């Protein structure tokens, strides 16, 4: 059945600012959806308040509204666009679904004659209202855990008395497990029940028997209006029930499920999806399976929308769920649509994987002092990475190498835990680093049966770990000159990095690399093709692996490499890796724009990234996508294979910048600002020398390498002092100290976490105003794209400040100093591309806090506020294709744009919420005001000093 031709204009609801539990996977879904609808000639109107994302880029939709996600905004848009026929709320996570429900209750869709597509109201209600959901399951004969609903404290107590402990409390209509908790003891019940009831917008919780130790699975489904259903991906949680899926290590396809149980689970999922409502679109279903030979299946929940896992499933299979779901919402059927990767088979074709995917979440507990770091039903991770390999072991290693937490993979880096009690505790209370702790436990000799008893992780996974450890032990018996080829090949096939093998052999990483080259053990690249090579794939989406040589009948030996190198001029763009506080989706925005600009300049674009949630890792963003860790060994091998003209590092945040030194050392061209200039800006001593030459003021400072030197410096600099390590992002480890005792404690703390780091001690300009400028420079000309003034005083990290564009309170004299300093510093650093400079203003003197010659967090914000494609321009400057003077700048902004940070403190109830120099916000929204008399500005300004912590 072809598409519904009466739909000509669609409203897409986005998910708002990034918070824990709802991150940029919905930016990816929304972007895909907008492109998918526009391909069909449909007008797309989009509402989302998040300025950092690709989704809200003017190019993504016909009309983009950067407005708060409220029914008031929805009414404004529907009045401005009376031609809107339908609303698609399934791409914006729980936020969009909840807003859609509210608009339905207020009769807004009916008033404006707008219909829902992709889901129906009944489906949202049935799946979100725990009582209705249970009733439905029992009606259609699907097993579920014994559970009852409570909408009062008293009712909750009665249910607990009836069921006994352990119990699970789950609030209705919340996201990312907000307010959910396990209750093991009677003493904790009252507090956790109250918290759950408060977290639910309808003051309702579901209390169920805890299925502790059961295995957890997810299925991603698509259904069309003819009731065809395909299962895109099966995902197994390595962690048993009890840890939120967003915080679980997950594996695709499912590894430890018998085929009979898998078929039963498929049938149940399809039955559930067909029973919740009559709609065409995507669905995510979660199940628990008993860990015995009976393999009893219990349904946990169903989400009638694209979910966090559907971004993962799309990247894992190469099947773009959001893109196809959007077309199904228009009335197409699966058999009418094309498989996007093969371009020759239909979308009514379930993907088959001939590789393994491992997803590991990325946490940021360091930002939440005093946070409970154990994992449970409430999601706490801020991002995730995905590894693709030929085996579980290879994918697991690649995922651990992608995390950017100073580990080289599992074990073999000397950083494991050695204390028995500590290991047992971390296994007992699921810790964020348990993926490494399991390896440490095996290394210590703790039996697998004991690890299984404590963690309830399936024995199959633990045996995979054990095999890795046995291999490490065997390799450690050799030296670099005696290691047999078979063992080296096996270690590489199982994902061990050259650094790890060097650690086992007691030699240098470069020696292992040379040995690999001599033995012809080289990475080969394979296609992610959705169909296990049954049909030819047209889309260049690759992962790396190692294969044994094949010998032909004529005696020729070779390894099969599916990545064909063209003779076009190429550029590599390094992505930003997993989202974390301080380096989020705004760098993905910059990478995508960089890729598109390089394409316009005639380059073949090559993207390297490992974050499954983003648009940069969409299979058709760059000409070639390598879904690989942003980890030196992987990058170097891709560069050796592709031989690009150069690499762009300044769009991928600190992740990409940190690789600049290695690229420079290996003689690989860096497009844009040189490595020396990047290093000069990071090295505080050299940078201050430059400022002195330029006669630009900066706060008095000193550099120390230990607590003793820091205390001596304090005598010269005076308190308060801002203490920070060099080469970090998001203000990691920054603190304002006001006496010697605080100074000593903080220095010791930093050096414990970041050993051998140089510490910068700055005299803190108390009560100063903070401002920042972003500019594009071509080495000769400078154009300032935006100057922003922070509403909070100096001392709160720029990422946590409310900031206005343009400034609201800086006089002509101060503004001129900012402009002059920005131009002088950009030229002195020989910047080619983007630069961000931060200032402190006291007594009308503008001091320099720091300069970052790269894309900054604020660039997407300024681009959206002024309606100008600044990253596109900057990339063309980096590539040497254009000068700044070649562009006609025409910024448009009536009034002011305010960047408002968003925090996820509700995930950490006992944490100190005071703000300081270390960034804690997880996302941001944009607010447009006509003038400074606006009530919202008054409100922000009156609270500006409330959170300042020293």
TrEMBL record:
Reaction catalyzed: hydrogencarbonate + NH4(+) + 2 ATP = carbamoyl phosphate + 2 ADP + phosphate + 2 H(+); hydrogencarbonate + L-glutamine + 2 ATP + H2O = carbamoyl phosphate + L-glutamate + 2 ADP + phosphate + 2 H(+)
Domain ATP-grasp intervals: 134-330, 688-879
GO molecular function terms listed in the Swiss-Prot or TrEMBL record: ATP binding; carbamoyl-phosphate synthase (ammonia) activity; carbamoyl-phosphate synthase (glutamine-hydrolyzing) activity; metal ion binding
GO BP of this protein: glutamine metabolic process; L-arginine biosynthetic process; pyrimidine nucleotide biosynthetic process
GO cellular component: cytoplasm
EC numbers on record: 6.3.5.5
Keywords assigned: Amino-acid biosynthesis, Arginine biosynthesis, ATP-binding, Ligase, Magnesium, Manganese, Metal-binding, Nucleotide-binding, Pyrimidine biosynthesis, Repeat
InterPro entries: ATP-grasp, ATP_grasp_subdomain_1, CarbamoylP_synth_lsu_oligo_sf, CPAse_ATP-bd, CPSase_dom, CPSase_lsu, CPSase_lsu_oligo, CPSase_preATP-grasp
Pathway: Pyrimidine metabolism; UMP biosynthesis via de novo pathway; (S)-dihydroorotate from bicarbonate: step 1/3; Amino-acid biosynthesis; L-arginine biosynthesis; carbamoyl phosphate from bicarbonate: step 1/1
Protein purpose: Large subunit of the glutamine-dependent carbamoyl phosphate synthetase (CPSase). CPSase catalyzes the formation of carbamoyl phosphate from the ammonia moiety of glutamine, carbonate, and phosphate donated by ATP, constituting the first step of 2 biosynthetic pathways, one leading to arginine and/or urea and the other to pyrimidine nucleotides.
Annotated protein name in UniProt: Carbamoyl-phosphate synthase large subunit
Organism of provenance: Flavobacterium stagni
């Amino acid at each position: 059945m072809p598409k519904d031709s009466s739909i000509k204009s669609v409203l897409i609801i986005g998910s708002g600012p990034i918070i824990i539990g709802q991150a940029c996977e919905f930016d990816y879904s929304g972007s895909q959806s907008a492109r998918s609808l526009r391909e069909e000639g449909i007008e797309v109107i989009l509402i989302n308040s998040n300025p950092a994302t690709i989704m809200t880029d003017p190019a993504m939709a016909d009309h983009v509204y950067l407005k708060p996600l409220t029914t008031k905004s929805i009414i404004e848009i529907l009045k401005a666009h009376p031609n809107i026929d339908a609303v698609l709320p399934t791409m914006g996570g729980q936020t969009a679904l909840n807003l859609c429900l509210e608009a339905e209750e207020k009769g807004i869709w009916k008033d404006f004659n707008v219909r829902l597509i992709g889901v129906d109201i009944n489906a949202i209600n049935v799946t979100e209202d725990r009582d209705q959901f249970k009733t439905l399951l029992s009606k259609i004969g699907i097993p579920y855990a014994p559970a009852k609903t409570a909408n009062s404290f008293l009712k909750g107590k009665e249910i607990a008395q009836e069921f006994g402990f352990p119990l699970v409390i789950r609030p209705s209509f919340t996201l990312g497990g907000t307010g959910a908790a396990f209750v093991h003891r009677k003493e904790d019940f009252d507090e956790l029940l109250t918290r759950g009831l408060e977290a639910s917008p309808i003051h309702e919780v579901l209390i169920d028997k805890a299925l502790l130790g059961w295995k957890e699975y997810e299925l991603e489904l698509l259904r069309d209006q003819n009731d065809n259903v395909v299962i895109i991906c099966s995902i197994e949680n390595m962690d048993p029930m009890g840890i939120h899926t967003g915080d679980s290590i997950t594996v695709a396809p499912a590894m430890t499920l018998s085929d009979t149980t898998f078929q039963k689970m498929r049938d149940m999922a399809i039955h559930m999806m067909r029973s919740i409502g009559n709609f065409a679109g995507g669905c995510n279903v979660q199940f628990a399976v008993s860990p015995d030979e009976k393999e009893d299946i219990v349904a946990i929940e169903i989400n009638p929308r694209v979910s966090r896992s559907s971004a993962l499933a799309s990247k894992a299979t190469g099947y773009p769920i959001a893109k196809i779901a959007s077309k199904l919402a228009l009335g197409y059927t699966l058999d009418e649509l094309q498989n996007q990767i093969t371009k020759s088979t239909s979308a009514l074709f379930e993907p088959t994987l001939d590789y393994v995917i491992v997803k590991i979440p990325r946490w940021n507990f360091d930002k939440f002092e005093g946070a409970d770091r154990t994992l449970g039903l409430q999601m706490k991770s801020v991002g995730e990475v995905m590894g693709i390999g030929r085996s579980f072991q290879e994918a697991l290693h690649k995922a651990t190498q992608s995390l950017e937490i100073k580990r080289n993979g599992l074990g073999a880096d000397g950083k494991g835990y050695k204390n028995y009690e500590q290991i047992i505790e971390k296994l007992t209370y699921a810790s964020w680093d348990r993926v490494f702790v399991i390896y440490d436990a095996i290394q210590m000799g703790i039996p697998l049966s004991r690890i299984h008893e404590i963690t309830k992780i399936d024995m199959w996974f633990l045996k995979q770990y054990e095999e890795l450890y046995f291999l490490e032990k065997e390799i450690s018996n050799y030296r670099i000159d005696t290691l047999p080829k078979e063992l080296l090949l096996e270690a590489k096939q199982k994902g061990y990095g050259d650094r790890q093998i060097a650690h086992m052999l007691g030699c240098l990483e470069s020696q292992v690399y040379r040995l690999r080259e001599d033995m012809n053990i080289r990475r080969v690249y394979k296609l992610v093709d959705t169909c296990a090579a049954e049909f030819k794939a047209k889309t260049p989406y690759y992962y790396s692996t190692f294969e044994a040589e094949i010998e032909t009948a004529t005696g020729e030996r070779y390894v099969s490499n599916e990545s064909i190198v063209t003779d076009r001029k190429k550029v590599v763009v390094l992505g930003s890796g997993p989202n974390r506080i301080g380096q989020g989706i705004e760098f993905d925005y910059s990478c995508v724009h960089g890729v598109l600009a390089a394409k316009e300049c005639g380059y073949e674009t090559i993207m390297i990234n490992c974050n499954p949630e983003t648009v940069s890792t969409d299979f058709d963003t760059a000409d070639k996508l390598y879904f690989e860790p942003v980890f030196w060994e992987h990058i170097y091998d891709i560069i050796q294979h592709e031989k690009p003209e150069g690499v762009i590092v300044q769009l991928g945040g600190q992740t990409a910048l940190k690789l600049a030194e290695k690229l420079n050392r290996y003689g690989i061209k860096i497009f844009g600002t040189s490595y020396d200039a990047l290093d000069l800006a990071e090295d505080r001593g050299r940078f201050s020398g430059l400022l002195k030459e330029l006669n630009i003021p900066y706060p008095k400072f000193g550099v120390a390498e230990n607590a003793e030197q820091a205390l001596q410096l304090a005598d010269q600099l005076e308190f308060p002092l801002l203490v920070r390590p060099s080469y970090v992002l998001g203000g990691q480890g920054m603190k304002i100290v006001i006496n010697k005792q605080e100074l000593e404690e903080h220095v010791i703390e930093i050096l414990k976490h970041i050993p051998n780091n140089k510490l910068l001690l700055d005299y803190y300009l108390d009560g100063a105003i903070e401002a920042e400028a972003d500019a594009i420079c071509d080495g000769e000309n400078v154009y300032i794209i935006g100057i922003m003034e922070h509403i909070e005083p100096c001392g709160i990290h720029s990422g946590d400040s409310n900031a206005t564009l343009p400034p609201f309170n800086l006089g002509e004299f101060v503004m001129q100093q900012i402009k002059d300093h920005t131009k002088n510093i950009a030229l002195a650093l020989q910047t080619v591309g983007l630069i961000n400079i931060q200032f402190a203003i006291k007594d009308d003197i503008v001091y320099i806090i720091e300069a970052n010659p790269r894309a900054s967090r604020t660039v997407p914000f300024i681009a959206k506020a002024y309606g100008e494609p600044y990253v596109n321009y900057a990339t063309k400057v980096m590539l040497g294709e254009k000068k700044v003077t070649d562009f006609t700048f025409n910024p448009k902004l009536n009034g002011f744009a305010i960047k408002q940070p968003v925090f996820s403190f509700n995930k950490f109830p006992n944490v100190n919420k005071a703000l300081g120099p270390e960034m804690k916000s997880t996302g941001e929204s944009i607010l447009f005001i006509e003038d400074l008399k606006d009530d919202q500005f008054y409100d922000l300004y009156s609270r500006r000093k409330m959170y300042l912590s020293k």
